[in-house]
Amino acid sequence: MRDHTLKYLLVLPAVVVVFATAIWPLIEAARLSFTIGRLNRPDSLNQYLGWENYTWAIFEEPAFWNSVWVTAVYTVVTVGLTTLLALGLAMLLAPGGRLRSTAQTLLILPFAMSPALIGVSFRFMFNPEFGLFDAFFGIVFPPLADVSWLADPTLAFAVVVMADVWGWIPFLTLVLIGGLASVPRDTIEAAQVDGASSWRVFRDITLPQLGPVLAVVIILKSIFSLKTFDQVFMLTNGGPGTATQTLSHYIYFNGMKYGQIGYSASVAWMMVIPMIFLTYAYAKFVFRKA
Amino acid sequence: MFKRTLLKAMVAGALTLTPMATLADGHLEKYNLLPGKPFEGTKLNILSVVTPQFDGLMLRDEEFTELTGIETEWTFIPFGSLQEKINAEGVAANGTFDVVNYLDSWGPPNAHWLKRIDELMARDGISMDRYPAAFARSAQFEGETLGFPLRAHPQLMFYRKDLIPEPPTSWADVIRIGQELKESNPDISPLALYYNNDGNRQNLFIWINFLWAAGADIFNDDWTAAWASEEGIAATEAYIALHTQHEVTNPNSLAFVEQDARQSFMQGNSAMIPVWWWAYSGFYNPDSSTLTKDQVGFVGMPSFEGTTKTYAISMPFSISEYSQNQDAAWEFLKWLSNPEMDKANATVREVGGKSIVNNVVTHISSLQDPDVNAANDGIQAAAWDSLKQSDIMPQIPEWPEVGDILSAAIAEAAAGGDVRQLMTEAAERSDKVLRRAGRIE
Known about the structure:
The complex is a heterodimer.
Chain A: H1 3-32, H2 52-60, H3 62-93, H4 98-112, H5 115-125, H6 132-140, H7 153-181, H8 185-193, H9 198-226, H10 230-235, H11 247-257, H12 261-289
Chain B: H1 2-22, H2 27-31, E1 43-49, H3 52-58, H4 61-68, E2 71-77, H5 79-92, E3 99-101, H6 118-123, H7 133-138, E4 140-141, E5 144-145, E6 147-153, E7 155-160, H8 171-184, E8 189-191, H9 207-213, H10 230-244, H11 258-266, E9 270-276, H12 280-283, E10 296-299, E11 310-311, E12 313-319, H13 326-336, H14 339-347, E13 350-351, E14 354-355, H15 364-368, H16 370-375, H17 379-387, E15 390-391, H18 399-414, H19 419-436
Parallel strand pairs in B: 1-2, 1-3, 8-9, 11-15
Antiparallel strand pairs in B: 3-12, 4-5, 6-12, 7-9, 7-10, 13-14
Helix pairs in contact in B: 9-10, 18-19
């Protein structure tokens, strides 16, 4: 067998699996998005109604735009906070030292937890009567003692963000520590010899050198923030009201709780657009890095 | 000629006596099962919610297997994941489960694959009249019966007997008692309510009592939203005012779902809670509660503006149309829903070596039964009283979506939003949703 043929044969199983688990569902979802697609009427899964699901979401459904807004704010805030805090932690841990390996090991623990478990844990910890965080914040800052965190739209949103940032900081920190290790020590030492301040070294040497890694980190985190579901589902279930309802949660509820699989597929496809853009950017950066 | 006649008589006699012999212990007759084990060797897969009540039934199914030769395999799913599982079963359409258990409001969206059992009931002399009207309606859709309500609940007002000498009979009483309690026992909140919307529309459970008592309803006859009428708005404002104006609710009621409110009552942080009757045994269970049985009292739900009408809920069992064993599944449903079983499951405290904690019954006969009441502190009598004026949520496929719109509006109103504006906007959204679904012309 020629090498040319063999290489395609070796790749074929992976292609088949990707097609069956990713490509085909996407195609089927696209088809469903143009149907009435109500689970309580099996015939409707093949009854086409053109672009109506899309126009319904865009022009008639305030809940759709609410979830778009929540997702956008959530993505910006979580990506910004996580990246900044991870960068700070990475700078602290990068120089090394006896505690670094221990700290790194401990750091990975939150990332090892499933998002659903993080959601449940935070829900318990913010329970207004028996929650650990609730009691802690009440002691540290007594005016917060009587605050029902998960009942207030803004605070509930803040708690969801907090849970996400807590879960993601470790992974991003480890990636950034790796990035910092590739910054040439010679350049930094030369700048220090020339009298550059620590801030100047960070701004003019470290940060530019870290640019590609930071770009990958930001894009990767944006993808995960955009599709956030587990934590929201377990922690607030989109509430209070619809204050924390992200797009993924909205899609899930419409598809699985309300049986509107056609409409749900159309919103999912609208969500695919920014995902494709981000995935393309991610691939481009990773490829360039390689 | 004589020989042939004699032979016929002997065969006829044998055929007559065989089923009689089978019925000798009364079991087949009592459970109305087919004699002769026609489905012997069949295995039924049952999908059920996790609950101690069904533990009691499952632990008895050896008897069913002995009587019919039908084996059973129970799969228990936590309530939080059950709706998705039920919907997925409907989509898969492969008959993995022969019998399924679901919340009543999920029946209409899945009615296309749940077997209608009216003809079978008529054939075997079973009537839905054996259940309170609200329970019966909860297992029906568009006039047809989808299953039997095996787990069904009325609401009761539970209160701390050591703190409240005279239980409330009206919501005005609740406010008065609550305000007195705040003076006498400032460390305990008077009322644990649950205004949070958590996907299961729990914050509608008490609200709807106010709505109905005020003479309003959820829908008009043409399925347009009716809750934004003047009566509906006034009822909603009264419900929200318990928290925002009268301040007799636990301050955390905004964040509470039903489970949190029960926990608050059990830990001694709240003195009253309106909730399903099944919660009773947990309220004095030393493993989960700080309260003793002497401290926990119950009465029917309070009236609003002189009228009491309460919400009831059920979890029916139905046969899947995709099942290959529908006849055997019907035998199982007959056995499972039998009045004797209903009674035994609330009076016998140990089955197969395992303890059973259950006060839930669904038959009128059990609700009125002195033995059942004696074994459960008379909670069935209070429940039966409550159920006489009970109703259920609208049984339409679109209810989960409309209910969630309402639930979000109630949560926002309780958090300080404008009740009229929120309820009106919710009504407009509901009308749009139902118009799109083709329910409103």
